[in-house]
Fold this protein.
Amino acid sequence: MLRPMILAMNGWYPANKDECSKEIERMINPDMFIEGRNPISAVVPHAGWFFCGELSVNCIRVLKEKNGEIKNVFIFGGHLTELNLAILETFDYAQTPFGKLKNNNDILNELKNNQMIQTVEYLNDNTIEILLPIVNYFFGDKVTITAIYLPPNLKIKELISDIFKKYGKNSVFIGSTDLTHYGPNYSFYHTDKSLSGIDWVTKVNDKNYINLLLEMKEEEALNYALQNKSACSAGAALGALLIGKMNGVKSGKLLGYNSSYEKHKSSSFVGYTGILY
């Protein structure tokens, strides 16, 4: 089964190979880099490329540059509740403007029997698809992928530990989440009237959550996200954080932060971050 490019058809990223390549190259920023370590996991956003593509492109670029030829890319998606099981996508190939990315059958066959996981061919969900062309551009079509949606609960630590022990040496890991969804489109507002909505999101709600991710305080970060609606896919971010901690990382590296408000000033907006572990 071929996982389709649904978001490309809806304008989230270019469906044409040449246009897609030009868009990615336009967003490459060599100043967004990390010194002194080889990160193997990242937290990246998953909105349309117009709003946050630079963060996703450069986090994935750094993972490629620091790790060279790896065998597999794990992409952790989200939009699950605390009560969900993890969801593993079983498609054969994922379609991108650059060609097809192969699902890793060996990993798939091993993980699908895990009692913490349920399987589907694919979900019509942006958190994984939006990153597939970027993975294909930087890692090529020889790399395989594994797509897993992670629920926002601490029970996933056991699953992530198993994955890291078996595949950590030959893989990189991407946790896909956007941050605070604020305003009438999302029925979410703040109560501190001394701050504007955008100041509260950027200087308080998103900032506090990002700091917890950088400090690698997994329980506090997860609880903060759930209590303050500061991440729409906190399980995916938690997965990337846990991989970094299992790899011996002591703190995350902030590659960047922005919001949709910077591109389109509106009463409704979303925050985005790029973090490397």
About this structure: The two ends are 33 Å apart (CA to CA). The chain has one domain: 2-276. The longest strand covers residues 269-276.
